[in-house]
Amino acid sequence: MAETLYTDRRLVALYDTLNAWGPSDDFYLALPEAAKQRILDAGCGTGLLAAAFAAEGHEVVGIDPAQPMLDLAAQRRGGDGVTWRRATLQGFASERPFDLICMTGHAFQCLLTDEVILAAFQNANKLLGGAGRFVFETRNPSGKPWEQWRRDTSFRRGTTPAGEAFEMFHQLLQVADQRVTFETCYRLPATEDEFRSTSTLRFCTYSQLEALTQAAGLKIENTWGDWDQSDLSAASPEIILSLVPA
């Protein structure tokens, strides 16, 4: 995990400001099928959704490979109701199975190779213990959303938790073999400090996800194209999958 956005504490502090609660969180929060379930939030980040699950009475474990994100998660309101662990989905072990595993915030797209995705799917299958669901989303590549990752279309202004004004924008760097590399630039006008974070995401097709799902001993239970649970189409912004043990 080398991306500055997740490891530089100055940028981690901006994460919640730039990623407030939205329709995707509503979607995931409604997934548990019982009043109390054991839930794994994989790639939990600063713990917004994990803490919300805990507030609903669920037993929640939040994992993330970036310690600064977990540190902030533990400090948030309701954070003491979640068990936080530094780990990846493919490397996490648990003696008890989970009813629900979710991977939100497009964290799935940080899995850049078939081998890593397969390892994550196989371990998710193991962690489900023969029942339960693994639900995640990835941006639909058919719409080429990365074409909007440039300064004139992504520029935003906001205020840090400390009350400082900031500016940010994305800048596309490279598109190669389903992998999109871009830079996120931050500026604090008061001090003229600038920070840059380079990220690479993979844009898998549905057919690739289906093949890797089957190879891991899972099957696709449901597919949606957006947070309103509409059907997946070429125009859909998301590919949202619910996987269950085969």
Task: Explain what this protein looks like in three dimensions.
The two termini are 31 Å apart. The mean pLDDT is 94. Strands 3-2-1-4-5-11-10 form a seven-stranded mixed sheet, sandwiched between helices. Strands 6-7-8-9 form a four-stranded antiparallel sheet. β6 (156-159) and β7 (165-176) form a beta hairpin. The chain is of the alpha/beta class. The chain contains nine helices and eleven strands.
Helices, strands, pairings?
Elements (H helix, E strand, L loop, with lengths): L3 H4 L1 H4 L2 H4 L4 H7 L8 E5 L5 H8 L3 E6 L2 H9 L6 E5 L13 E4 L10 H15 L4 E7 L11 H4 L1 E4 L5 E12 L2 E10 L4 E10 L3 H10 L2 E7 L13 E8 L1
Parallel strand pairs: 1-2, 1-4, 2-3, 4-5
Antiparallel strand pairs: 5-11, 6-7, 7-8, 8-9, 10-11
Please give the count of helices. Answer: 9
Strand arrangement within the widest β-sheet reads 3-2-1-4-5-11-10
Estimated helix fraction: 25-40%
What is the multimeric organization of the chains shown?
single chain
Strand content: 25-35%
The tally of strands reads: 11
Please give the alpha-carbon distance between the first and last residues.
Answer: 31 Å
Q: Supply the helix-strand structural class.
A: alpha/beta
Rg is: 18 Å
Largest sheet: 7 strands, mixed
Secondary-structure element order, N to C:
HHHHEHEHEEHEHEEEEHEE
Mean pLDDT: 94
Structure summary:
This protein has 246 residues and is of the alpha/beta class. It is built from nine helices and eleven strands. β4 (100-103), α7 and β5 (133-139) form a beta-alpha-beta unit.
